[in-house]
Design goal:
Blueprint: H1 12-15, H2 19-25, E1 30-34, E2 39-41, E3 49-53, E4 57-63, E5 69-75, E6 95-100, E7 102-108, H3 109-117, H4 121-146, H5 149-164, E8 168-170, H6 173-180, H7 184-196, E9 200-203, E10 206-209, H8 212-218, H9 221-229
Antiparallel strand pairs: 1-7, 2-6, 3-7, 4-5, 4-6, 8-10, 9-10
Helix pairs in contact: 4-9, 5-7, 5-8, 6-7
Length: 232
């Protein structure tokens, strides 16, 4: 069966579907704009829709009792939000917030569950992506606990670049600090360090990667480990 070539190819999961399976899913897909700061579902919300981002980036964050939030996962053009709904959990344990705006597709959890149960390519693709996402979450936890802020920011920027396809990341220092679980002052210092090394430019909330190979070399081993484990 041929792989389809439609607007859905902007998302890798949808692009990898055989044409017949994409045509079965397509009538249920709705084009959406994902706005910066938009919360697509919050902690303890019932997950009603899943999203397939194109150039948007969705952060999954968990919140502590004191209100502090830390990012535990990233979803971009590589995958789909709301994986927990496939595992039989209706409520979310995380907040899913759009940190980089762009378009995407969404459909209901019921539609995805029905297509998943057919046991075809969509089933295999989602299982593969779930495996990749679990690896991402576990490696991120290890990285945040053991590596320097410089290494963690480098890894995080590379992961963003992979998922949005652009070297430009428009984010405030406050937001980056929250995502990395560190202080704003630390982000400022690290950004200056990476800029001085000729790896990025940073100006008024915009980070631009100008030397990706150098950034990869500067990053900790976590990025390469995630890249080598990727199954889809």
């Amino acid at each position: 069966m041929s792989v389809h070539l439609s607007s859905g190819t902007k998302n890798r999961l949808l692009a990898a579907l055989p044409n017949d399976e994409y045509q079965s899913l397509s009538p249920h897909l709705q084009s959406v704009e994902l706005r910066h700061g938009q919360v697509i579902y919050d902690i303890e919300d019932v997950i009603e829709h899943v999203y397939f981002p194109f150039g948007a980036l969705i952060s999954l964050v968990t919140q502590m009792a004191d209100g502090k939030v830390v990012e535990v996962g990233l979803v971009g053009s590589d995958g789909m939000s709301g994986l927990r709904s496939l595992l039989g959990h209706k409520a979310s344990y995380e907040r899913a917030i759009v940190q980089i705006p762009n378009g995407g597709m969404r459909t209901t959890v019921a539609v995805v569950q029905e297509e998943f149960k057919k046991g075809k390519s969509f089933h295999k693709l989602l299982l593969s992506y779930t495996n990749d996402f679990i690896s991402q979450v576990s490696q991120t936890a290890a990285c945040n606990a053991t590596h320097t802020v410089e290494e963690r920011l480098s890894r995080w920027l590379l992961m963003c670049h992979d998922r949005i396809g652009s070297p430009k990341v428009n984010l405030t220092q406050e937001f980056i600090a929250e995502m990395l679980g560190t202080r704003r002052a630390s982000v400022t210092t690290v950004a200056i360090t990476l800029q001085s090394a000729g790896l990025i430019t940073y100006n008024r909330g915009q980070i631009t990667i100008i030397d990706r190979p150098g950034l990869e070399a500067f990053s900790c081993e976590c990025y390469e480990m995630l890249k080598s484990r990727r199954t889809h």
